Amino acid sequence: MDYVLMLLLLEPSIRVNELVGIDLADVRLKEGSIYLKNAKTYRERVVPIQKCGLNFIQEFANKNVLSVM
Fold first, then answer.
1. Which of 1, 31, 54, 66 has the most crowded Cβ, counting Cβ within 10 A?
2. Residue 16 and residue 39: Cα distance in Å, rounded?
3. How far is the C-alpha of 19 from the C-alpha of 5, rounded, in Å?
4. How far, in Å, CA of 12 to CA of 34, rounded?
5. Cβ atoms within 10 Å, residue 21
6. What digits encode the pLDDT tens for the residues 9-19?
């Protein structure tokens, strides 16, 4: 999980306060983006993510969903 968080901070330049507010529902895998609600300007924004980052997010989501069941 730490790797996914660091990747999101570095790759698409997501701020820490934005990262803390991300829910799994905010990640749009098909579009390759993350919907950020807590942006610095108090406006919502959509940040594109490269395929590598999306793959790590998908793996993380799969592990967490399976561990909850």
1. 54
2. 10
3. 8
4. 9
5. 14
6. 777 678 888 88
